[in-house]
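tool=predict chain=A
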Amino acid sequence: MINELALIVFAPLVAGALAWLLDVKGIKEAIGLIGAAVPLAYTAMLYERASEGISFAVNLGVFDITFRLGQLNWFFVGIAVLVGFSAVLALVSTAKDSYEWLFALMSLSGVLGVFLAADLMTFFIFWEVMTFASFMMVLHYNRSASLKYFLLSVAGAYAMLIAITFIYAKVGSFDFGAVQTVFAQDAYAKMLGGQATFSSTELMALFGLFLVAFGVKAGMFPLHVWAPDAYSETNQSYTSMFSGVLSKAGVYGFILMYILIGTRLAVEFGAFRSASKFGYIIAFLGGLTIIVGGLLAALQEDIRKLFAYSSISQVGYILVGIGVGTALSMQAALFHALSHALFKGLFFLIVATIVHRTGKTTFADMGGLAEKMPFTFAMAFVAILSLAGIPPLVGFASKWVLFEAVISQNLPILGGMVFFGSAIGFVYLIRFTYAVWFGQRPTDLDDTKDAPLPLAIAMTILALFNVVLGIAPGLVAKELNKMFGKEIIGGNLFVLDLGFGKYNALAILIYLIAGLIVAAVIYFLGAKVRRVPVTDTYQSGNPVTMDYNLTIRRNFFLPLKEALAFWLRISFDRLYRDIGAWVEDLAEVLRNYIYNGNVQSYAWYLLIILLILAMWGV
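tool=predict ok
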């Protein structure tokens, strides 16, 4: 019998390869859907057995490929198979060719292998499978965006490989359990004044390498520059999985780093206020990610770029929770990882529908689509409420727990960053709501149709989870408590009780329904409508000159852009391009003067090296 874990990991890859080879319309879609449905079904079947610790290994001679299922990685696998299946279902409507089926399903296999890996070598191999497949998806649409993604991914991959190689040289094993044991023993030895296996410098280097490796994939500032182009310049149905699932590989990597070497890092570098110093670095970078991603999202004129930057910003919340490092903040981070996958996966499916039906991507070309696409608008309304953190959607529940976790630790800077991110989220969501769905509709959109059936079903799946887990957040809290082996978040199905604060989702829902009924009665009884002049803008009384075209669809946040002009001149994207240019110039110099193809020159180089080695006594 084939092991269940092997089926979960390899079914999408096999299905993708078959869909690519057969390339028959209708058959390739059916095979792709089966390939995504198999891991979803087996993950659901293994729910009760996750606590038992299911394992699977394949011997490759030099090393083993090992998988292990536990409570933590079942949670991440569950996110991946749910959003992955929805994205693959949407591809039935939007995929151009069998090429996309191959690499979309390959990337799903890659990320599932990352989540189920039981050792560092398996983790790295499937990390590279995931990265390669997603790179090929971006390359299919935009060469420049794929190159940027490739270069930063290579930097992250080399950082991880160096760290893994160094750990293996010292520990003698890739196994997570063996690595964790050595670092835990190191921590105790350090506390007792003994000799540790890893020195402070080596430990700091490992932390820096993993920070780069996982930060790139998570889209953490300032390693985020690949994400806006990569997310926007590929099939938007696939971006639902790219943003919703593949970014969680970076999040999972940070959590894994805590598990493997966190104790040693905490002992070695101490604490800052109530957080460990290494954790505070992650949390602070997460806070910057929230702010930078949110502000840049507000300034975008393309809906794909808006939600790409928004996705970066939302991952920042997860990093803050991980960095704070308490049991509650870790649960909040995991909760928001789920929320982010659900509402951001839904958002990109909505964008995929809009692009598929209209061929438009910019605010200037849209408007009035709610009348023509009522179902998609309803789905967008759910996603907007969830991302904005409006109860009783799942986005509010996870953000509320995160806010409470940060505030309870008396970390005002991080708290301010988190609250600012929520405020800026309202800013860009308001524009998306009005510019796309309301107002005057361009005449070329008068014949626009609503979502095709596969996209509609995919959106419905994610929308239902946004609503159900928002009204019953206790379902998520129960799984998180099971993962930690004790009750961190109390309450019941509808109530979250942290001990110093409660959230009752059912009560909020009842109040919300009552308020909507009252508002509807007032409206239908004849509420007065007033005409608003074009000069009545958010400028708060400032004179609006002809220089400002502040319509909701064109340059709506131009004053904000002008206010941020100094900071917008600081571009890490440009910095990385300049570094790349310097490297190219250096390579050209080396090619001309050192690697010049002259055999005599190479003989002299060899002689010089031999003399140096002789002087060192080698």
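Residues 200 and 412 are 29 Å apart (CA to CA). The chain is about 70% helix and 5% strand.
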